[in-house]
Specification:
- β6 and β7 form a beta hairpin.
- This protein is mainly β.
- The strands form 2 sheets. Strands 3, 4, 6, 7 and 8 form a 5-stranded antiparallel beta sheet that branches. Strands 1-2-5 form a 3-stranded antiparallel beta sheet, with no helix packed on it.
Length: 137
């Protein structure tokens, strides 16, 4: 076999071997962050509830929470409240809000790869909403 034929034979053999190997360097759901949406904001008695929908996208949720700020989009470190680690649709109570104030909320959920954020959602609390202690002395 001359040099040209040997090179062609090696290239074709290598092509056949590589085509027969089916491997994936990454699992299908690896590096996928959660999808987070704020669906609604409700007031029940003196408590504001953020209704969120969290989709894990195949990776377990490790933390969920809410960040909020008066009158502007919050940084993720502003007024954080953390909750359990789950996916699905549920309501999160937000504590320590004052009445008659415009707040902007962002919900977030994290898995082992990163954190997914909702779009900022604004809400003006009712005038009669007031901070109250959870216990009495």
């Amino acid at each position: 076999m001359n040099y040209y034929n040997r090179s062609i034979f090696i290239l074709i053999s290598l092509f056949i071997v590589l085509q027969s190997c089916k491997f994936d360097l990454f699992e299908e759901n690896e590096f996928v962050i959660p999808t987070v949406n704020i669906l609604d904001i409700e007031v029940q008695q003196d408590t504001v509830f953020i209704i969120v929908d969290i989709i894990d996208n195949g990776n377990p949720i490790e933390v969920i929470g809410i960040a909020y700020e008066q009158g502007k989009t919050p940084e993720i470190t502003d007024n954080q409240q953390f909750y359990g680690a789950t996916s699905g649709t549920f309501s999160i109570p937000v504590l320590r809000l004052e009445g008659g104030i415009d707040y902007t909320f962002v919900a977030f959920a994290g898995n082992e790869y990163s954190i997914g954020y909702s779009e900022p959602t604004s809400f003006t609390t009712p005038d009669n909403l007031g901070f109250r202690a959870l216990c009495e002395l």
